[in-house]
Specification:
The structure holds two protein chains of two kinds. Chain A is α+β, with helices and mostly antiparallel strands. Among the domains of chain A are: 168 residues, Aldehyde oxidase/xanthine dehydrogenase, a/b hammerhead (Aldehyde Oxidoreductase, domain 3, Alpha-Beta Complex), CATH 3.90.1170.50; 143 residues, Aldehyde Oxidoreductase, domain 4. Chain A is 28% helix and 24% strand. In chain A, helix 12 runs parallel beside helix 21. Chain B has two domains: 76 residues, Ubiquitin-like (UB roll) (Roll); 69 residues, [2Fe-2S]-binding domain (DNA polymerase, domain 1). Helices cover 33% and strands 16% of the residues of chain B. Chain B is built from five helices and five strands, in the order E-E-H-E-E-E-H-H-H-H. A five-stranded mixed β-sheet of chain B has the order 2-1-5-3-4, with helices on both faces. Chain B is globular. The N and C termini of chain B lie far apart (56 Å). Chains A and B meet through helix 1 and helix 20 of A and helix 2, helix 3, helix 4 and helix 5 of B. Bound molecules: FE2/S2 (inorganic) cluster (FES) (2 copies). One FE2/S2 (inorganic) cluster binds next to loops of chain B.
């Protein structure tokens, strides 16, 4: 493991690699996921997915489905309370009412006693559709003469998912007066773009396209709901965002938040794709049926009708002076939002103009509606698309000016104080340090030798993410035997509860084995924001640290009374509080536990409270390098070596931080080389399965070298900053740059399929 | 159509189960025997999350019918640890940080276990080839490779 910063001293737990506290349950198969929970009288739901991309629903006949043995109900929009249904927001639409807006949109739900019966009956629901013209391509959709993707204009867009990932102030303009498929636009300008290009010694431009990709967590969505006799709705969901789900479900179903309980079940992978989707629908079905209802999506259903990441088209023109100074960036960034608003235009526009210092900017972003499944967040939403364009252009400029591509990046890389396109200055960031780390890798050092070999090349790229901000809270309690419980409300996907155990153990100077961490449900846990936007350790970690400090003070106060020693003269270690220099004067955590919990106890229980609000971001950058081999006959690209350097501020658990970096980088390779949701001209998804939608396998991904870079953040616990998202960003550009380096042909569209390589090499014509 | 009675020996225990002819082995083991360690990630044989050993052969149990396994010896993830001690493959996954969300892990561990039975001393490339039927979306595989190589070393005792 490489470590790029100062020796860390004085810490006992944080900064050291530890095993995940939940790993044993996972390797033995004992850990229950949503689909593993058992409920008496459970009904299984299967959704009827529209087989057309855009249509009016004429008639629904459920009689044949209802006749299937085991079927208890078939529910359509007409059976659901209509007053709160909002056709502008995907999650509030529940079931399509009059108009189908995308291929796969749910139009009815079958409830049956076993899933096979539900699936069988689902196929017997007869729906009569009147097809409307489907808008599939975002550029076509933007034309004035394009048919509209929906017959009613958007009144209210929901951007909570995006805001959970990136929290920043900027004006996003709602659609214009004329009916159009463009649902929002953003503009950022700085300096004088024409003067910038006039000053440039080299100008490059191009149009870069990125395919629609799916988060492809291995566990498909699963949601269970039960509405009990007391009027309480409980939802078990593999969600990353239990408190968000609670509020949204309550709002949509007309219940108080206090009557909705969301239990976040173990999340079998989310990557932004499991924020909030069918919980309100399943809740409504449970209320309708008065029995527990489970919706476990099959892989196909999940690919048809979850919330994948958008297709994007980025037109970019960039100008640089002969000395490598970037002087002008002009971009038009178009995201295909699918059938509902919610595309990551804001982060895309901020990052395309916010990764390098550049005095002259002209950036326009468009969110375009089409009749495809509506998009959601996927790890650094919107960022890989723009990095693909920007980082390709940086290489093109470097090549034109005969400069070293890594040096050019170092020269222009943003630093603390540099403004984002919105004007907001960066806090401490480590983009330069990441580039320097990549410059030291063997892959980069040996690039000249690599190039000697035919069809081999090396490419570098960078990318970053700004991060989401939400308040967070936590409690730390002392048990009767002196052990400690930490309670949080954030779903643990990436090992955050292990990190919290390290933090609490550090602050209380305990062995890790004395600390246990639990994620409560929304009725029992202190509030936390969604596990998204890379913010969990950054925000909840701070709350845990504060809560542990608070518990520490309470412990010291009681110990001080017991030992008759001022609190400042006490120290604690391994569950013993003692007077400094007088080791015989001591009291153990176990004694304090009894004194604060026993019958007739003298003291109130020890409950440390930590609550914070986070207002300042801790952006993370990553630099990556790829060594590839291109087969000139087949067009196949093989990644031979790959390294990722990322500034994580401070790696509280380097083992899980490395895993995050490697996992994100591998997802970047998937976007780069194989992943694409393919739609036909009528808007039908052609590859809703894991055979035709190609995720990276062990054969595609070499062992990725992870280099942890640590430039401390201002506010994160011990200087930690966001970790989860940045690593996915540079991959597509790093691979495209390596391919260009290997064979001299530049590819402007990901995934870089063999066909596209052969076309770029002129070996395949239309 | 009436259900069919089949006999399965799962992790050494004999079961007689009444199954519908269309039930997969995965569904039967999960729903009828309550062994939910094996996961369904795709249901089409493409992800490996449902991997089990049937008469010593690694199968994707989501596309094997329960009736096809009549009379067979089945080993699932629940059968790997002995007397509460993790199998070396499981232990190595924990120690090397190869577990993130965990959903692929039961299948991944079964595939690794099977690979090491057939090839106790694999190279990195052999590990990559051997696990190619098991998708993991979280880890980028690097720590999984490390874990399998470490487990191999431990099992060989060198
Ligand atoms: S669930 Fe069987 S291979 Fe995916
Ligand atoms: S650990 Fe999540 S899919 Fe492998």
């Amino acid at each position: 493991m490489a470590r790029e910063t100062l020796e860390r001293t004085g810490f006992r737990h944080v900064g050291r690699p530890v095993d995940r506290i939940d790993a044993t349950g996972k390797v033995t198969g004992e850990t229950p996921y949503g689909d593993d929970l058992r409920f008496p009288r459970l009904l299984h739901a299967k959704l009827v997915h529209a087989p057309v991309a855009h249509a009016r629903i004429r008639r629904i006949d459920v009689s044949k489905a209802l006749a299937v043995p085991g079927v208890e109900a078939v529910v359509t929009a007409a059976d659901l309370p209509s007053h709160r249904i909002n056709p502008d927001v995907r999650q509030q639409t529940l079931l399509a009412r009059d108009e189908v807006l995308f291929y796969g949109q749910p139009v009815a739900a079958v409830l049956a006693r076993d899933p096979y019966a539900a699936a069988h009956a689902r196929d017997l629901v007869e729906v009569e559709y009147e097809e409307l013209p489907a808008v599939v391509d975002p550029l076509e959709a933007m034309r004035e003469d394009s048919p509209l993707a929906r017959t009613s204009a958007i009144q209210e867009a929901d951007r909570s998912e995006e805001q959970g990932h990136i929290t920043i102030e900027a004006e996003q303009e709602q659609a214009q007066s004329r009916p159009s498929n463009v649902s929002s636009t953003i503009t950022f300008k700085r300096g004088d773009i024409e003067a910038g290009f006039a000053e440039a010694d080299a100008v490059v431009e191009g149009t870069w396209r990125s395919a629609m990709v799916h988060q492809s967590y291995i566990e498909p969505h699963v949601t269970i709901a039960d509405y009990d006799a007391n009027g309480e709705l409980t939802i078990w969901s593999s969600t990353q965002a239990p408190f968000h789900v609670r509020h949204e479900v309550a709002r949509t179903l007309g219940l108080p938040d206090a009557r909705v309980r969301v239990v976040a079940t173990e999340v079998g992978g989310g990557f932004g794709g499991k924020i909030y989707l069918y919980e309100a629908l399943v809740g409504a079905l449970a209320i309708h049926a008065r029995r527990p209802v489970k919706l476990a999506m099959s892989r196909k259903e999940d690919m048809l009708a979850a919330t994948p990441a958008p297709q994007a088209v980025v037109q970019l023109k960039a100008g640089m002076k002969a000395d490598g100074t970037l002087v002008a960036l002009q971009a038009r960034v178009i995201y295909d939002s699918g059938a509902f608003p919610g595309a990551p235009v804001l982060p895309g526009c901020l990052l395309i103009g916010g990764s390098y210092k550049c005095p002259n900017l002209d950036i326009e972003g468009f969110e375009v509606l089409t009749n495809k499944v509506s998009v959601g967040a996927l790890r650094a939403p919107g960022a890989p698309h723009v990095a693909f364009a920007l980082e390709s252009a940086m290489d093109m400029l470097a090549q034109r000016l005969e400069l070293d591509p890594l040096e050019v990046r170092l020269k222009n890389a943003v630093e603390k104080g540099d403004p984002l396109p919105s004007g907001q200055p960066y806090p401490a960031i480590g983009l330069k340090e990441c580039l320097e780390a990549i410059a030291r890798t063997e892959i980069w050092q040996q690039r000249h030798q690599t190039r000697q070999r035919p069809n081999r090349g090396v490419g570098v790229a960078v990318g970053g993410w700004l991060g989401g901000l939400q308040p967070a809270s936590a409690t730390v309690g002392l048990n009767a035997d002196g052990t400690v419980n930490v309670t949080v409300g954030a779903a643990d996907i990436t090992g955050t509860n292990t990190t919290f155990a390290q933090i609490a153990a550090e602050e209380l100077n305990l062995p890790l084995s004395m600390v246990s961490v639990v994620t409560g449900d929304t009725k029992t846990a202190p509030y936390a924001g969604m596990t998204a936007g890379s913010k969990t350790t950054y925000t909840v970690g701070r709350a845990v640290k504060l809560a542990a400090e608070d518990a520490r003070q309470q412990i010291l106060a009681i110990a001080s009374q017991r030992l008759e020693v001022p609190a400042e003269e006490l120290e604690m270690e391994d569950g013993v509080v003692r007077a400094k220099g007088q080791p015989e004067k001591q009291v153990t955590f176990a004694e304090l536990g009894r004194l604060t919990t026993g019958f007739g106890a003298r003291y109130a229980p020890i409950v440390g409270r930590g609550a914070i609000t986070a207002r300042r971001q801790a952006p993370g950058f990553s630099a990556q390098v790829a060594e590839v081999e291109v087969d000139p006959d087949t067009g196949e690209v093989t990644v031979l070596r790959y390294a990722v350097a990322q500034d994580v501020g401070f790696a509280i658990n380097p083992k899980s931080v490395e895993g995050q970096m490697q996992g994100g980088a591998a997802q970047g390779l998937g976007i780069a080389l194989s992943e694409e949701m393919v739609y036909d001209e009528r808007g039908r998804l052609l590859n809703p399965n894991l055979l035709d939608y190609r995720l990276p396998t062990t054969r595609d991904v070499p062992p990725i070298e992870a280099i942890i870079v640590e430039v401390p953040s201002e506010e994160g616990p011990y200087g930690a900053r966001i970790v989860g998202e940045p690593s996915i960003v540079p991959g597509p550009a790093a691979v495209a740059n390596a391919v260009a380096d290997a064979v001299g042909a530049r590819i402007f569209e990901v995934p870089i399929t063999p066909e596209r390589v052969l076309r770029a090499l002129g070996k395949l014509q239309d | 159509m009436p259900k069919r009675l089949i006999n399965l020996t799962v992790n050494g225990e004999a079961y007689e189960v009444a199954v519908e002819p269309w039930w997969s082995l995965l569904y039967t083991v999960r729903e009828e025997l309550g062994l939910t360690g094996s996961k369904e990630g795709c249901g089409t044989g493409d992800c490996g999350a449902c991997s089990m050993l049937v008469d010593g052969r690694l199968v994707t149990s989501c596309i094997m019918l329960a009736v096809e396994a009549d009379g067979c010896q089945v080993t699932t993830i629940e059968g790997l640890a002995t007397d509460g001690n993790l199998h070396p493959v499981q232990q190595a996954f924990v120690e090397k940080g190869a577990v993130q969300c965990g959903y692929c892990i039961p299948g991944m561990v079964m595939a690794a276990y099977d690979l090491l039975r057939r090839n106790p001393n694999p190279t990195l490339e052999e590990v990559r080839l051997g696990l190619a039927g098991n998708l993991c979306r979280c880890t980028g595989y690097a720590k999984i490779y490390e874990a399998v190589l470490a487990a191999a070393e431990r099992m060989r005792g060198d």
